């Protein structure tokens, strides 16, 4: 029995001594494991590039030779919707005549053929497009529009429903590369 007590006492002493250490610099705690790819914080996403301006989009569409004429860049005084630079509005806007549009329509209006509206975010374009399309569906007398998106979805290119479908397809083809 004495042997058992001695063995238990000796084992306890050895275990306690092994668990104790000194506070010298040679006996520092182990460094935490290096982060793995799955545990590392994700790198911040790069800031989105500045959206194209309506003037730049208009120039690209003109270069595509889709029949634009009487192009105009709108400002605060010529914006027919009073959305330019306002909260929830667009950053820039331009308009142009397209074959099939109504040349007698409002000078900067969609009925003449084409309108370009540039927004700060894709969600803004989605909201604007949905509002227009829902309004037109609810009041068919107002006509129809084709809607195309460019520049990662931040540009809404509106084409009057008065424009023939073949002409609208030409606009769509020109927008694809933007």
In short:
The chain contains four helices and five strands. It is globular and about 50 Å long.
Can you put this structure into words, describing what you see?
It is a single chain. The protein has 178 residues and is an alpha+beta fold. It has 4 helices and 5 strands, in the order H-H-E-E-E-H-E-E-H. The protein has helices spanning 2-19, 54-63, 122-138, 165-176, and strands at residues 69-73, 92-97, 113-118, 145-150, 155-160. A hairpin with a 4-residue loop joins strand 4 (145-150) and strand 5 (155-160).
Feature tags:
single chain; 178 residues; alpha+beta; 4 helices; globular; disordered N terminus
Structural class given helices, strands, pairing?
alpha+beta
Number of helical stretches of at least 4 residues: 4
Give the quaternary arrangement of the chains.
single chain
Radius of gyration over all CA atoms, rounded? 34 Å
Q: Whole-Å distance between the termini?
A: 90 Å
How does the overall form come out from the CA principal axes?
globular
Biggest sheet: strands, sense, closure?
Answer: 5 strands, antiparallel
DSSP helix fraction: 25-40%
Question: How much beta, percentage-wise?
Answer: 15-25%
Low-confidence stretches: 1-25
Number of distinct beta strands: 5
Strand order of the largest sheet: 1-2-3-5-4
Mean of pLDDT: 83
Q: Please provide the ordered H/E string of secondary-structure elements.
A: HHEEEHEEH
